[in-house]
Amino acid sequence: MTTVKPTILLIHGFPQDHTLWDPQLAALSEVAHVLAPDLRGFGNSDPPKEVMPMQTFARDLCALLDERGIDRAVVCGLSMGGYVALSFLSLWPERVQALVLCNTKATADTPEAREARHETARNAKQKGVAVIARGMIGKVLSLHTRTEKPELVAQVGSMMARQSPEAVAAASLGMAERPDRMAMLPSIDVPTLVITGEADELMPIATSKVMAEAIPGAKLVVLPNAGHLSNLEAPELFNATVRDFLASLPRA
Ligand code: MLT
User: Fold this and answer.
1) Which atom of ligand 1 lies closest to the CA of 82?
2) 127 Cβ contact list (under 8 Å, min separation 6)
3) Predicted local distance difference test score (pLDDT) of residue 118
4) How far apart are CA 102 and CA 107, in angstroms?
5) Dist. CA 96 → ligand 1 center (Å)
6) Would you tell me how many other CB atoms lie within 10 Å of the CB of residue 116?
7) Mean of the pLDDT values across residues 236-244?
8) Exposed end of the chain (fewer CB within 10 Å): N or C?
9) Ligand 1 atom closest to Cα of 104?
10) Span from the CA of 147 to the centroid of ligand 1 (angstroms)
11) What is the pTM of this model?
């Protein structure tokens, strides 16, 4: 019997690009077809619109699946990528074979958070992305990573700093207008894995617990020593967790 590998669509967060997923490419490609595109504006992709709502990113990803002739994928998003994954699921549930939600949440922004997004958008254009990247590095990596893995700190810093001001501003404004998705969670009927880092300051464990408990049958995995970028900070455990999850999926 030949086994058809699932496709896993890896969606990066903010302000990142597809290189976020470098430690996953080889490790997951043994068990899945791996797609790790740049969201519009980021990395090597096309320029963004003034505002990039999460559903616009999702539409781009759906177009990518169409272009590749892929009907269904395991949709895996980290942080902003998770917002995009939930948006994708709300638009095309039939195209989602399973869901992996990493270091993310289903709630909308508070009014204060929305205001902060607008400030980030202004800062990106006026002060440059390097300033934003410097401010974020301490928040996206755990103290353990910052102490033990200086090369990773430098790599994440330069990945964030090289993103274009337009992309950062547009995605920030897009995140500010994303809807609350909590009400949709109980109706999710595909296998779902929720992953987070034990030291994620931006999405505390409680946030992931609430999300996992609201999704029928969802499994929550908390990676030790990892912060917000759990796939980079604890790549072996992250990869093993996702590989086990992929192996557990019903054959398509
Ligand atoms: C991300 O990592 O994508 C961002 O921290 C998400 C957010 O700002 O809400």
Assistant:
1) 3
2) none
3) 98
4) 14
5) 22
6) 14
7) 98
8) N
9) 6
10) 22
11) 0.98
Helices 111-126 and 165-176 meet at what angle, rounded to 10?
170
pLDDT digits (tens, 9 = 90+) for 64-79: 999 999 999 999 999 9
Q: How far does residue 79's CA lie from ligand 1's centre (Å)? A: 5
Neighbouring C-beta atoms of residue 206, cutoff 10 Å: 9
Enter the DSSP assignment of 218.
-
Look up tokens 């205001």; give the residue. 115
Chain mean position to CA 5:
22
The full set of domain ranges for the chain reads 7-248
CA distance 16 to 18: 7
Distance of CA 221 to the CA centre of its chain: 16
Among 98, 82, 107, 86, residue whose Cα is nearest residue 206: 107
Structure tokens at 152: 């990773």
**pLDDT tens digit string along 114-167?**
999 999 999 999 999 999 999 999 999 999 999 999 999 999 999 999 999 999
pLDDT at 251: 77
Residue 136 alpha carbon, nearest atom of ligand 1: 5
Distance CA 170, CA 51 (A): 4
Question: How long a stretch of residues is the chain?
Answer: 252
C-alpha to C-alpha distances, 210 to 19, 99, 205, 214, 238, nearest whole angstrom: 29, 16, 9, 6, 20
Q: What is the average pLDDT value for the chain, to the nearest integer?
A: 97
Tell me, what's the pLDDT at 160? 98
Position 1 scores a pLDDT of: 54
Amino acid at 221: V
Q: In CATH, which superfamily holds the domain spanning 7-248?
A: Alpha/Beta hydrolase fold, catalytic domain (3.40.50.1820)
